[in-house]
Amino acid sequence: MTTKIQFTNNQGHVLAALLELPDQEPKGYAIFAHCFTCNKNLTAVRSIGKALNSKGIAVFRFDFTGLGESEGDFADTNFSSNVDDIIAAANYLEMNYEAPKILVGHSLGGAAVLFATSKIKSIKAIATIGAPANPEHVSHIFENSITEIEGKGEADMAIGGRPFKIKQQFLDDIRSQKLQHAVKELHVPLLIFHSPIDTTVEIGNASKIYKAAKHPKSFVSLDRADHLLTDREDSEFVGLMIASWSNRYL
User: Fold this and answer.
1) Over the stretch 164-188, which tens digit does the pLDDT of each residue have?
2) Rounded to whole angstroms, how far apart are CA atoms 85 and 60?
3) Which of 33, 114, 120, 121 could tie 105 with a disulfide, CB 3.0–4.6 Å?
4) Which CA distances in Å does 222 have to 156, 197, 232?
5) Gap between the Cα atoms of 20 and 42, Å rounded
6) What pTM, to 2 d.p., does this model score?
7) Domains with residue ranges and CATH for the chain
8) How many whole angstroms from its chain centre is CA 35?
9) How far apart are CA 199 and CA 186, in angstroms?
C-alpha cells in the first residue's frame, strides 16, 4: 500500500513523500535519500523500495527541499539542508508511525545519511549506494561553472538536462563537510554498494568509506551497474540485499 504524505522540515517547507507499506506488519521502517538533483520517483528508488517491501520493510521516500514535489528553492539548499530533511523525515515517522530503523542513501544521498545517523537514535543499519567519500565530490558535475559561481556568487546551469541555480553557499557548505570523520563515529552496521565501472562517483570512494568505518561493515560490488542503476535487475538486487542483510539488525 502506498500513501502520499506531506511533512514540514525545520525551515517550514512542506516536503512531499510516499510511504510504501508491505502486505504484512512491517519489520521496520526505512528512509530513502535520493541522489543529487534527483527525486523520490527515480526508477531505481522505486525498484529498491518494492524489493524492500517484498521482504516486510516499509519504505519512506521523499523529495528533498526544492526538488520534485517539495516546496522551497533548490538554489537555497545545500548538503546540510539535505541532512536536516532526513532528520525531519525521521521525526515525522516517529511521531506518526514508528521510528525508522534503516537509512538508505544513493550517491550524495548516501553521504547525507551517514551524517544524519548520529542525529537519529533509532537507526539500526545504514546502506549507501554509489556514495562519494566527500560531499565536495559532487562539484565535479558543475566544475566548468565554479569560476562563475565564485565570481558572481551564483551560476545557472543544466544538470541532467534540467536547469538549476548553484550558489556560493552550496560550494562553501560541501567544502566544509568531513565525511570520513562522520563515518568513523558511526556506531551502527554499514553496508556499502558501489560499481567498479561507476563513472560519476569512482569506486575509490567506496574504499575510503569502508576503511574509515568500524566493524560491522560490508561491501557489495555492483559489477556492470551504472551510477543511477538504470537496469532494474541491479536496483532490485540492491533492495533484496539490503533486506536480507538488515534483517538480523531489526
Assistant:
1) 999 999 999 999 998 888 999 999 9
2) 13
3) 33
4) 34, 9, 13
5) 15
6) 0.96
7) 2-136+178-249 (3.40.50.1820)
8) 6
9) 27
